[in-house]
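Question: what's this shape?

___
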Amino acid sequence: MALPEAPFAVAPTTAWDGVRRDIVFEWFVFVNHNTASTVRGAGSCVLLHPWMNASTPTQGCTGMASSSLVALLEWMDPQRHPLLVQLPSEVLAERAPQWGLPH
């Protein structure tokens, strides 16, 4: 598989301060949320990463099967400035047409 060497820019140093050092992910996506003017308590250092399993929670990240993450990485194009939208399926179905989102 030929994934880009660095699909996105390196995350800001301050955001990486909160990363758990005991878990190492082969693949992940850094979500650029609350990084410029960090607001305390608003969440930061959010990753899309492989899950331990379907029933183990993350620390505020989005976990998924490794195969799903690899498919996402192969699909993503940083030049198109991807936007992460996470909603309950009912809300997505309601708002997707007005927001121009796939559903």
